[in-house]
């Protein structure tokens, strides 16, 4: 589950703001439990336990079902990621490019793979030939198990402008047939042919529906990813504000006209769990792949 600091996430924060509910989560992390079993473990009455369970259910943290005459609860999520607004440096000007996820210029992918648009799947799922189908330009979500997709976008930094920082922002997840919330995958980033680093995606999420994912997408397939912000500076690369690799701006091969961006599951990846890229109209962030070149 991914949260932000908006009021839309308030129910989850409120649900977690209770020592009793935190104990319930810890108990359910071991195995599903009935209201009676939870009441015994917590030394509380069943009606009080039920009130706490209702709060966790409203926040979509747990789910419950009837087993005989008992109501049994289990955890619905295993990870919560909180995204804080990132700071924009006001002293720098910026050239910002948004790249739709279907506008890749080169690819080599293996099943499971496919493309999805606002009204349905694009071509046939698990057939790499359709990655060159003209309708791919309308895709809002693409996925593949092994291989890569590569994008090109104009480099508008002029000869009298000093590049200070390069930001790459995108919503990513792993790829598993249907979905698997705990399916790690090593996704490697390249800019202008230079390997920037590898991020391990924790899973392919369908615990809740994506905020912008179209209604036609079934509940049991990819719903959303995690927003990742890769920042290359003159003293290293950061991922979501944390030190990532030693790659600096001077290490990027300069190109007069273009930036080239690649997302790859390398053949020697320790966790080869595929890649899903979410674009505008899908996932939890209504955005395409964004490349921002900050300059002075």
From TrEMBL:
It holds the Pfam family HTH_5. One of its GO terms (molecular function) is DNA binding. PROSITE patterns: HTH_ARSR_2. Keywords: DNA-binding, Transcription, Transcription regulation. This is Transcriptional regulator. Coiled coil: none annotated. Residues 1-95 form the HTH arsR-type domain. InterPro entries: ArsR-like_HTH, HTH_ArsR_DNA-bd_dom, Metal_resp_trans_reg, WH-like_DNA-bd_sf, WH_DNA-bd_sf. The keyword S-adenosyl-L-methionine does not apply. It comes from the Bacteria.
